Amino acid sequence: MNTIKKRPVYLDITRINMPVGALVSIMHRASGVLLFLAIPVVIYFFDLSLHSAQDFSTVTAMLNSVPGKLSVLVVLWALLHHLFAGIRYLLLDVRIGLTRDAARIGAWIVFGAEALALLLMVGLLR
């Protein structure tokens, strides 16, 4: 009698239909890691920009390039997503939005708020 069940060798994550709350949770963790990894780069650029006017111009030129703008956009998204998802989790901790429908609406609000805030920030940074 063979009691060993065959387990999947390859799990295709694109075929799994995850709820929106799970996506917010995964992205919250990913944005936290990204923010943590961005800290040394941000500190370095800040330190370099304070050395001299020439170094400030160098940092400005780097951040005004296409890869620089893309990097700033990604870090800004990570900051906004982490902020709004963190507020959602704090509300869940005090038992606000625990039902399935309220949790789903809260997750969609996180995505909407971060998109709106990102659009406003990009508009203000131009």
Q: How would you characterize the overall build of this protein?
A:
The chain has 126 residues and is mostly helical. It has a single domain (24-125), classed as 3 helical TM bundles of succinate and fumarate reductases. The protein is 78% helix and 0% strand. The chain has helices at residues 20-51, 53-64, 66-93, 100-125. The longest helix has 32 residues, at 20-51. It is extended.
What's the CATH architecture name? Up-down Bundle
Overall outline? extended
The count of strands amounts to: 0
Low-confidence stretches: none
Let me know the average pLDDT.
Answer: 92
Number of discrete domains:
1
Task: State Rg.
Answer: 20 Å
The SS-based structural class is mainly alpha
Provide the CATH topology: 3 helical TM bundles of succinate and fumarate reductases
The CATH top-level class label = Mainly Alpha
* Oligomeric state of the chains present here: single chain
Question: Helix segment count?
Answer: 4
**Largest sheet geometry:** none
Cα distance, first to last residue?
Answer: 69 Å
Helicity range:
over 70%
Content of β-strand: under 5%
Short description:
This protein has 126 residues and is mainly α. It is built from four helices and no strands. The chain has a single domain (24-125), classed as 3 helical TM bundles of succinate and fumarate reductases.
Explain the layout of strands and helices.
Blueprint: H1 20-51, H2 53-64, H3 66-93, H4 100-125
